[in-house]
């Protein structure tokens, strides 16, 4: 069973502690929202868990293997990672950008095996990009480009997806479209860990919420157990009304 397990993981930068003694697990069949204010340590936790950022202590296992010991191709077969910054180094067609998701299998745009091509086509269909496949990616809107990057991740066929703020700067409609696609990936047997700042959106889609504050995980559980007015005050310093999965921010404390 593919999973990501972090145990007592800490990350330091000079004298600063970016993550302190963090433990969590991500497995197939669940969509987990990682929440917390800016600077809480969310991105460092993701990168260290994947072996992309050096750990000061603790360990992280990706499908049973120390993530720091995996090659880029080995890692990409286990987990698809969408970082905050997703620049395109040069203009490419949408189809070619999605095909980059197959690099872990030795594929390259224009040199796809039948299996690679099928995976790319499935990802394009899943993300509703059929009318864009021949467009240059740098001509797309933010919402369209976000779907392209999701399709690239899905094309990899990895059992897990980790996405760092995949809906940042998108309008509400496109936020729902991206989260619907990630939810669909999970419902079909994948596992996803997604950094979000919209608490209501997280509560709508997530099976679990992991809350971070001051470099530490302070809560991990279903929305019904971890989302509360007290939690919003503690984590974000805001007054909020919470009713089920509905959250209304009233103002700063």
Automatic annotation (TrEMBL):
InterPro entries: AAA+_ATPase, ABC_transporter-like_ATP-bd, P-loop_NTPase. Pfam families: ABC_tran. Part of the ABC transporter complex HmuTUV involved in hemin import. Responsible for energy coupling to the transport system. This is ABC transporter. PROSITE patterns: ABC_TRANSPORTER_2. Residues 4-239 form the ABC transporter domain. It comes from Henriciella pelagia. Keywords: ATP-binding, Nucleotide-binding, Translocase, Transport.
């Amino acid at each position: 069973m593919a999973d990501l397990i972090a145990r007592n993981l800490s990350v330091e930068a000079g004298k600063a502690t970016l993550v302190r003694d963090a433990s969590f697990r991500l497995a197939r069949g669940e969509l987990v929202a990682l929440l917390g204010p800016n600077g809480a340590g969310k991105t460092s936790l993701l990168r260290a868990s994947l072996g992309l950022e050096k750990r000061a202590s603790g360990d992280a296992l990706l499908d049973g293997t120390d993530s720091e010991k995996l090659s880029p191709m080995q890692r990409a077969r286990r987990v698809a990672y969408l970082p905050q910054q997703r620049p395109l180094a040069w203009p490419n067609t949408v189809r070619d950008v999605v095909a980059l998701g197959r690099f872990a299998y030795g594929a390259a745009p224009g040199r796809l095996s039948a299996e690679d091509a099928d995976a790319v086509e499935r990802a394009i269909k899943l993300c509703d990009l059929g009318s864009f496949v021949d467009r240059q990616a740098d001509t797309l809107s933010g919402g369209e480009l976000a779907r392209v990057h999701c399709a690239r991740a899905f094309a990899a066929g990895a059992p897990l997806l980790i996405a760092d703020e995949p809906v940042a700067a998108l309008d509400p409609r496109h936020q729902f479209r991206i989260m619907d696609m990630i939810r669909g990936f999970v419902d079909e047997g994948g596992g996803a860990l997604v950094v979000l700042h919209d608490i209501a959106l997280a509560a709508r889609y997530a099976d679990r919420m992991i809350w971070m504050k001051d470099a530490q995980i302070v809560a991990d559980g279903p929305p019904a157990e971890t989302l509360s007015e007290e939690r919003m005050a503690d984590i974000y310093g805001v007054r909020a009304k919470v009713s089920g999965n509905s959250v209304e921010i009233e103002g700063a404390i």
